[in-house]
């Protein structure tokens, strides 16, 4: 057993209201600089939709992530030869059209325009050329356009559905959408790390946060191609790549990352997981449909005395093991099994998990009647958003994983409805619990963690022990460099 600790997250999609506060909090803190205007370390997409950069999920186009090659796993970009061969011309990079041309407005024209009969307007200007431009795309261009034939219909996940399922999704009276907030997943098997020819990207040993050493980065941008989630970006002013750092300076001070702290819907949970690094290789070699279960296998029980003993041997501090025991991520992912990784088939073992949205499966006319349970569980196959679509997003195509999550989530709703509204019979609740394979006590625990948590229960930050490195005599400059501070300018604070 080779135990390590990983700071991990869960996003509860039923709670996201698509307000983009998280994106703005991140932008103000980290990417409010010249040359990084188009970087959205945190972005919020509407699903179905094409996302940002457009169609990032389409690995036929971008060749991101890993693929099985016989008994080996190799980057879709190719082996070392392939990487080096494309170093001066990489055809798999997203272009500016896949992102958008950054723009601002000539606000000064609003107050300096000469008196006239018309209201003055602020024209959009390109932040690259400085010339007036017509805005044709943006970081959330297809926001809320779930029914759009231009955007939603081109979602790579939708294109994999049968024509009947696509028709079902786009029937006007059945249209449905949800929000998908995304940050770097701080993957266990990070393709960005493997793809970097300069060795500038690394996974921090003590907490698994993936960082780019700015002094080592040579701007080859292989990380941008290799990351299947397109969560590294190239900074045009610095000539270096940058990515989400999970606000590690805030974590080290005991503060939640800015996007977690500002989240209006309180959808974000953070906690440490203990995992067995020896099982990574086996987990990544499974068939697509078995990847979720294999990823769960890697995660260890922090209450198991043998795991605790091995953690001690591996030098993991007691406080980190204790934080793992209070981790909400452990509960959602391993104990309750209702949070799933995004696109496990990319085989990077992402450490950000999602509780899938319980979209309207039961029509309103049936809510609160004696037929609720039967109607719900028999209509799961014909859900407004096909189960196959969600399975393509969160389960490597395994619809049984999605159904198991849905059955449990619905059991929570039915039991709570009996308590708060009282129009569901006890026998129906019992049936829902049986189908969801969940006890009454577990339902109450899920409900409390979903609806009634304090920030201290949602965000359990393990001690980062920054002081240990300094007390051990490490040169503060070297420490800063290793921690990824590099030559970054201090972020400009606006609020
Ligand atoms: S999401 Fe992308 S950038 Fe983040 S660790 Fe995984 S491969 Fe690297
Ligand atoms: S701040 Fe929270 S609720 Fe708002 S869009 Fe971001 S993740 Fe969703």
TrEMBL record:
InterPro entries: 4Fe4S_Fe-S-bd, Nitr_red_bet_C, Nitr_red_bet_C_sf, NO3_Rdtase_bsu
UniProt keywords, alphabetically: 3Fe-4S, 4Fe-4S, Electron transport, Iron, Iron-sulfur, Metal-binding, Oxidoreductase, Repeat, Transport
Pfam families (UniProt xref): Fer4_11, Nitr_red_bet_C
Domain 4Fe-4S ferredoxin-type intervals: 7-36, 175-206, 208-237
Biological processes, Gene Ontology terms: anaerobic respiration; nitrate metabolic process
First-tier enzyme category under EC: oxidoreductase
Presence of keyword NAD: no
Main localization category: other
A cellular component term, taken from the record's GO annotations: nitrate reductase complex
Subcellular location: Cell envelope
Statement: the UniProt record of this protein carries the keyword 4Fe-4S: yes
Molecular function terms, GO-annotated: 3 iron, 4 sulfur cluster binding; 4 iron, 4 sulfur cluster binding; electron transfer activity; metal ion binding; nitrate reductase activity
Record-listed E.C. numbers: 1.7.99.4
NCBIfam families (UniProt xref): narH
The protein, known as: Nitrate reductase beta subunit
Highest classification ranks of the organism: Bacteria, Pseudomonadati, Thermodesulfobacteriota, Desulfobulbia, Desulfobulbales
């Amino acid at each position: 057993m080779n135990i390590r600790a990983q700071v991990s997250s869960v996003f509860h999609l039923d709670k996201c209201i698509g307000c983009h506060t998280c994106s703005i909090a991140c932008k103000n803190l980290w990417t409010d600089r010249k040359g990084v205007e188009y970087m959205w370390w945190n972005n919020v997409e509407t699903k179905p939709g094409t996302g940002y950069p457009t169609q990032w999920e389409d690995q036929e186009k971008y060749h991101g992530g890993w693929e099985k090659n016989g008994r080996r796993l190799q980057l879709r970009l190719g082996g070392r030869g392939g990487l080096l061969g494309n170093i001066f011309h990489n055809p798999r990079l997203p272009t500016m059209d896949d992102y958008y041309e950054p723009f601002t407005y000539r606000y000064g024209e609003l107050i300096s325009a000469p008196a006239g009969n018309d209201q003055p307007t602020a024209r959009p200007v390109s932040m690259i050329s400085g010339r007036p431009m017509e805005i044709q795309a943006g970081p959330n261009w297809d926001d809320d356009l779930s029914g759009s034939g231009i955007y939603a219909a081109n979602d790579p996940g939708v294109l994999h559905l049968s024509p009947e399922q696509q028709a079902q999704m786009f029937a006007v009276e059945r249209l449905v959408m949800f929000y998908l907030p995304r940050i770097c997943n701080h993957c266990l098997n990070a393709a960005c790390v493997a793809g970097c020819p300069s060795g500038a990207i690394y996974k921090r040993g003590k907490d698994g946060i993936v960082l780019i050493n700015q002094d080592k980065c040579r701007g080859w941008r292989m990380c941008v191609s290799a990351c299947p989630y397109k969560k590294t970006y190239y900074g045009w002013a610095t000539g270096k790549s940058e990515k989400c750092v999970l606000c590690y300076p805030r974590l080290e001070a005991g503060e939640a990352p800015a996007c977690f702290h500002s989240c209006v819907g309180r959808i974000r949970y953070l906690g440490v997981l203990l995992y067995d690094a020896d099982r990574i290789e086996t987990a990544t070699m499974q068939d697509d449909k078995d990847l979720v279960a294999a990823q769960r296998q890697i995660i260890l029980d922090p209450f198991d005395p043998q795991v605790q003993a091995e953690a001690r041997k591996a030098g993991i501090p007691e406080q980190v093991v204790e934080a793992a025991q209070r981790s909400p991520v452990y509960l959602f992912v391993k104990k309750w099994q209702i949070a799933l990784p995004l696109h496990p088939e990319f085989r990077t073992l992402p450490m950000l998990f999602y509780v899938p949205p319980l979209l309207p499966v039961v029509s309103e006319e049936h809510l609160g009647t004696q037929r609720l349970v039967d109607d719900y569980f028999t209509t799961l196959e014909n859900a407004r958003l096909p189960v196959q679509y969600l399975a393509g997003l969160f389960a490597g195509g395994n619809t049984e994983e999605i159904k198991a999550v849905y059955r449990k989530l619905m059991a929570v709703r039915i039991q709570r409805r009996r308590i708060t509204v009282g129009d569901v019979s006890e026998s129906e609740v019992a049936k829902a619990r049986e189908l969801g394979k969940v006890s009454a006590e577990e339902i109450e625990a899920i409900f409390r963690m979903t609806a009634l948590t304090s920030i201290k229960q949602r965000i359990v930050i393990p001690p980062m022990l920054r002081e240990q490195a300094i007390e051990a005599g490490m040169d503060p400059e070297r420490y800063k460099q290793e921690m990824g501070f590099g030559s970054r300018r201090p972020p400009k604070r606006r609020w």
